[in-house]
Design brief:
The chain has 156 residues and is an alpha+beta fold. The chain has one domain. The chain has six helices and four strands, in the order ββααααβαβα. The longest helix is centred in the middle third of the chain and has 23 residues, at 46-68.
Amino acid sequence: MKNRAYKNYIFDFYGTLVDILTDEKDPVLWDKLGQLYQAYGAAYEGETLKKAYAKHVDQARKELIDLKGVAYPEIDLAHIFNQLYVDARPQSRNSNQPEDWGQLIAMVFRILSRKHVTAYPHTKEVLAFLKEQGCRIYLLSNAQAAFTNAEIDLMA
């Protein structure tokens, strides 16, 4: 393959290299997340948390559309999960919220919503072959960095 036509290969991570199925409407997901928030002093039941999350996401989306003028803005879910905690924690208590709460909850959210994630057949072999040939490989994704990086590592 010395006279290869391409030196650089760009792949979309999800749907091209990796098959993933998530269910962000699963009531069990929201119940478990609500329990995690409760463990840190924020009063959420599953359905209440789901509604508050949807409201924050919708508001953030509208603000980003106005600010950036794009139809499909990328919302920072870690920030949303932080804001949900701030909104629901009792003001009189000392916060025992971990410093990286938003990142942690974004990751837990993804793990609980993920039904499966697997590399498509021969994906690893093809990528290894391209790398052996001296090709440069680039991964693109429009998903949240808060959990995409971990899923890339998971597939490595």
